[in-house]
Amino acid sequence: MESRTLCDSNICTGCKACINVCSKGAVTVENRTGFFAPLIDASKCIDCGLCAKVCPNNSPRELKDIIYGRQGWATDELRCSSSSGGAASELIREFIGNGGYVASCLFENGEFRFDITNDLSRARKFAGSKYVKSNPHLIYKEIKDRLGRGDRVLFIGLPCQSAAVQNVCGDCDNLFTADLICHGTPSVQLLRKYLAEKGIDLDKARDVRFRNDNNFGLVVDGNRLVCGTLPDHYTYGFLKAINYMECCYNCRYAAYQRVSDITLGDAWGQLADTDANGVSLILCQTEKGKVLIEHADLELFDVDMEKAMAANPQLNHPAAKPRKRDWFFEQIGKGRSVSEVTDKVFVKYRIKRLIRNLFEGRRTQK
Ligand SMILES: Cc1cc2nc3c(=O)[nH]c(=O)nc-3n(C[C@H](O)[C@H](O)[C@H](O)COP(=O)(O)OP(=O)(O)OC[C@H]3O[C@@H](n4cnc5c(N)ncnc54)[C@H](O)[C@@H]3O)c2cc1C
Description:
Order of helices and strands: EHEEHEHHEEHHEHEHEEEHEEHEHHHH
Bound molecules: flavin-adenine dinucleotide
Number of strands: 14
Number of domains: 3
Shape: globular
Structural class: alpha+beta
Strand content: 15-25%
Largest sheet: 8 strands, mixed
């Protein structure tokens, strides 16, 4: 197939806006573990230019100043099943309760994909951070259809995906967007590979958790992969930014100015440091975002923005690419295991695991 690329693979975020607008099925976005390659099949392409027009790299969205910031949490019921303070889950509840639709990410059939719903019990599946690059498939098209029918839609996703939905749907009063403060994302392939090393088939898993309140670590169908207080290899690599997609190190949305109406994250450096149940940082860039927050059932407190930014570097700049990141993926490409390569990069982590396992072994022998 004769093909050309839509944007450079080191900046393609895999948002799939291009695929959503191509009526000829000429665009594919190949996921090559460490990066995305957006390819146009020249034999199908009719040069309409739509893919470039909606691509947030070719047509960047304007970023907006923060006009309002708070920290806080939802009711106990929602907070318990959420990763942070449950602000996203409360926004979802409130939005659907008022007749709207919500599009966000859930785990189903081995995939971290988007869905759109106005059914509250289905929407509960959105709760929880999935520290992996989610797959938007054709969600922007579905959202555009809903907006065309006069429905109100709230989109919650990664900042790159929020830019994509806005480019595909255009400026629309009925579209509300919330992005997550994002540290960076590994690919699903990497997660799948890691779990397979542990004897877990992602396609057969019913539930995958990445975090329980302020404790980070994979839990699959109730099985904790952590080693004592140490997170598993995948999560450790995530926290140390070694296993992200290439685009994450060049992310233009990891900045103080934001792409969405609302931005949600953790109130690190503030209440989240002392409250183990998770505390949300809530930022608004538009009046309509602020109205949503003020109507939600959230317990809200003032926030010190300087402290919030100091504790959350992704509000200033993307994660720095670790010196050994390319080597990490080279080794994975050669078929070495995620655990082995992570251990090689982070020697102190490996030693701590060894000591921990030694103690565990002694304890079980007694
Ligand atoms: C990859 C990633 C990196 C993050 N890095 C940071 C960080 O560095 N600093 C920080 O303060 N916060 C970060 N967050 C955000 C944080 O983990 C919480 O998701 C956020 O505070 C919302 O918590 P909540 O309790 O309000 O949401 P919940 O009520 O738990 O709901 C979470 C919402 O986020 C959506 N969501 C979860 N994972 C994904 C995903 N992979 N793709 C698209 N949508 C998703 C869900 O569908 C749901 O709507 C990150 C989130 C992700 C997914």
